[in-house]
Design a protein that fits this description.
The complex is a heterodimer of chains A (about 400) and B (about 325). Chain A is an alpha/beta fold and about 400 residues long. Chain A has twelve helices and 14 strands. The longest helix of chain A has 21 residues. The radius of gyration of chain A is 23 Å and the shape is globular. Chain B has about 325 residues and is mostly helical. Chain B is about 70% helix and about 5% strand. Chain B has a two-stranded antiparallel sheet with strand order 1-2. Chain B has twelve helices and two strands, in the order H-H-H-H-H-E-E-H-H-H-H-H-H-H. In chain B, helix 6 crosses helix 7 and helix 6 packs antiparallel against helix 9. The chains are: A alpha/beta (about 400), B mainly alpha (about 325). The interface between A and B is large, with 56 and 57 residues.
Chain lengths: ~400, ~325
């Protein structure tokens, strides 16, 4: 093919794609499923005494004072990380706006959510003396891989979302969580499946992540005899026909998927395509708009359990978030905001080195938007609400709190 | 379902009963998955046959086709969510458009890849190893371009047709989608085979594969043949991408080509790399093995089984099942 002819082919291709793009949009509203077997619980009201990152506006601190976010930003299951990062950014922005004398810097570190990458990045953070507190890491796998580095550097890290229970039993003095663990979520999920949804046979599917395996174990233990089958899938798997065929032969009432949305979306869609009509439920790792969009019509009637609190009533927070990012907050945005606020309060009260900050967080006690924050000596919260959510008309809405 | 566990903790099981129960289901699934592998494998095999080069960036050529498919659907006005109910001729028209777009983008990517990454090396008579490293490097570059542009999330699922059961074989449902995938890829393989074996250009490709120097002396334009080989491989990868996106609408993600590419490469080696019919046979076999293996050993063994079979066969037949033949005089 001559050069001229080759050019012509590409021009043609470009023209074709332009013509395609110009076609009218065909927006079809999704057909909402009938989820009316459950009365929706009222969302918790915004606590009047919730800590505010703005403080009293008179804080003074060194301009080099830095806190950091570390976690997935564009990497795997990125939507979960971005929700948190936006919450962090919002808190820092509000703080700096109100406190002219104390401009806290926010450093962002991309771990891509991969356990292999986290240790290198955390080491880098540990070697940056200006960083005195960290929000992260969001995922359990990366938290396990890097927790010891935080511990040795004496750098306090508050994860807004890692729920694997084993993380807090490593003796890391610097590890704190902004959410309950899977020993809270697992039994709650089991209770929700059997009591609220009335499922007698539940199929528990787990992926191969630290998070998926730990959560699945906790759910299975709580379900006891109600476990009809257990299946394993792998990260990055997109094709689940054999697993689904096995599940089909067990005809369960419900399926609980312990893992992240990236695999859960095609999995749910293929379940639906193969005519499995069991109720689909999953944890916080799949409670994201990405799941709803990825799973298509299969997302209708999906349920989520999450140790996160619905932020529907936190209007100040929602409005500010919307104004800053042009969209509504997602899963763990409010938790990210809350834990950042704790670090900022620490700075405002004059804790500007790592040791002082660690001491401050360890002894912290205060109300946040989502819950009351105070930690036991392992870094686990003492108050750990678990909520359920469901998909309605293509949107994730709150369902009931499991108590 | 009672299963025979080797150890208390079932890290592996031999669930012969499951294998038997799901045999036909796995056969159907394996054939549909395998025919996609086969189409991709053809790209590896053609390039290897002509250049003795393993084009590790072929998996990205494939994934570019998947993105082209997604953007065509999006450009046509379809959005993630429920599957539309299209009249048949409209559906076919839209799918053909997506096919053309995917083939053009994948074919174009393959040709550009050849020009940018491999031709300069050939000009300077670089050693074989340099090509291999360049291939891996090019694969990363193409992957990261998508990552920087579209981020880490897969494109949201857009689907034009729902799989519906058309008929059953021994109790295993065969969907309309499976039929389309298997038949289209067989047809494309047939076209490719005829193209290589019956046309003038095909003869040129075979001539260069067999003996590039003599072929050049006989008036074959070697550079043009090489470009065409990449183009054909790219076009088929594009077609495979459309079929894959119909099966797995969440398939357009920046790393999404890696595992498929590796398996297609394994398929090419299994069938005999450099052999077109070998690519078909290898693709189907890999698809079948991984599905049977998954039932027998458990879900997480799926990928391992395919590669263990590959190694076993190569131990006894290092040239692959059909052996290398693109360059042989055999027609």
């Amino acid at each position: 093919m001559s050069k001229a002819r080759l050019t012509r082919v590409f021009v043609l291709a470009a023209a074709a794609s332009l013509a395609l793009g110009a076609c009218a949009a065909r927006d079809d509203g999704s057909d909402g499923g009938g989820n009316d077997n459950q009365p929706q619980a009222d969302a918790p009201a915004q606590p009047v005494d919730a800590a505010n990152p703005r403080g009293d506006g008179n804080a003074v601190c060194d301009p080099s004072t830095t806190i950091a976010y570390a976690g997935t930003i564009n990497g795997e299951n990125a939507a979960l990380g971005q929700n948190i990062l936006n919450g962090v950014k919002l808190a820092v922005e509000q703080h700096n706006e109100a406190n002219e004398q104390c401009q806290v810097k926010l450093a962002e570190f991309e771990t891509e959510g991969v356990p292999d990458k986290a240790p290198g990045i955390v080491t880098q953070m540990a070697n940056t003396p200006d960083i005195i507190g960290v929000v992260g890491l969001p995922f359990s796998g990366e938290s396990k891989a890097a927790g010891n580095i935080f511990h040795e550097a004496g750098l306090v890290s508050i994860t807004p979302s890692a729920t694997n229970p084993d993380l807090s039993s490593n003796g890391w003095k610097t590890f704190f969580r902004g959410v309950g663990t899977d020993t809270d979520q697992g039994p709650a999920a089991a209770k929700f499946l059997t009591e609220n949804l009335g499922a007698q046979n539940v199929c528990v599917v787990q992926d191969d992540s630290e998070y998926g395996v730990g959560l699945a174990n906790s759910v299975k233990e709580a379900l006891g005899d109600s476990v009809a089958c257990q299946e394993e899938v792998k990260s990055k798997q997109k094709e689940f026909s054999a697993v689904i065929n096995k599940i089909k032969s067990e005809s369960p009432d419900a399926i609980y998927y312990a893992g992240y949305y990236r695999e859960a979306a095609p999995f749910a869609q293929q379940l639906y395509d193969q005519g499995v009509d069991a109720t689909f439920a999953g944890p916080d790792g799949i409670k994201d708009a990405e799941f709803v969009k990825g799973a298509g019509e299969a997302a209708n009637n999906a349920y989520f359990t999450c140790p996160c609190v619905p932020e529907d009533q936190f209007t100040d927070f929602i409005d500010a978030y919307n104004a800053a990012f042009g969209k509504a907050p997602g899963t763990y945005s409010a938790e990210g905001y809350d834990v950042t606020t704790i670090l900022l309060k620490g700075i405002d009260e004059g804790n500007t080195d790592r040791a002082a900050m660690l001491d401050y967080v360890s002894n912290y006690e205060g109300q946040g938007l989502t819950k009351k924050f105070t930690w036991d000596d392992k870094g686990d919260l003492t108050e750990t609400p678990v909520w359920t959510y469901k998909v309605e008309n293509g949107k994730i809405v709150r369902n009931v709190e499991i108590k | 379902m009672p299963a025979l566990f080797l150890a208390q903790d079932p890290w592996i099981n031999f669930d012969v009963e499951a294998l038997g129960e799901q045999f036909w289901f796995n056969t159907v699934e394996g054939l549909s998955q395998g025919s996609i592998y086969a189409l991709i494998a053809l790209g590896y095999t053609l390039v290897y046959g002509v250049l003795k080069l393993i084009n590790f960036a072929h998996s990205e050529v494939f994934i570019y086709g998947a993105f082209a498919t997604w953007f065509t659907f999006y450009g046509l006005g379809f959005r993630p969510g429920s599957t539309p109910d299209l009249p048949i001729f409209e559906l076919v028209g839209f799918l053909l458009l997506a096919l053309i777009a995917a083939m053009l983008i994948s074919g174009g990517t393959a040709v550009i890849l050849e020009r940018v990454a491999y031709r300069p090396l050939r000009k300077h008579k670089a050693p074989r190893l340099a090509f291999l490293i360049t291939a891996i490097g090019a694969s990363f570059v193409l992957q990261q371009i998508i990552f920087i542009w579209r981020g880490g999330n897969a494109e949201q699922a857009i689907r034009l047709m729902r799989p519906e059961e058309a008929f059953q074989i021994f109790g295993a449902g065969v969907t309309n989608l499976t039929i389309i995938i298997v038949l289209s890829s067989l047809a494309l393989m047939l076209v490719a085979d005829t193209f290589i074996n019956r046309t003038r250009i095909g003869r040129g490709i075979r001539a260069v594969a067999q003996d590039p120097d003599t072929a050049t002396l006989m008036g074959v334009n070697k550079e043009r043949v090489i470009m065409l080989t990449f183009l054909v491989g790219g076009l088929l990868a594009g077609a495979a991408a459309l079929l894959y996106m119909m099966k797995i609408p969440q398939g357009a993600s920046y790393q999404g080509g890696f595992l498929l590419g590796i398996k297609a490469f394994a398929a090419a080696v299994l069938g005999g790399i450099g052999n077109i019919r070998g690519a078909l046979l290898g693709g189907l076999l890999i698809g079948l093995f991984e599905n049977y293996g998954q039932s027998l050993f458990g879900g997480e063994w799926r990928d391992i089984v395919a590669f263990v079979v590959l190694i076993l066969i190569l131990m006894f037949r290092p040239t692959g099942i059909l052996g290398e033949s693109l360059g042989k005089a055999r027609v």
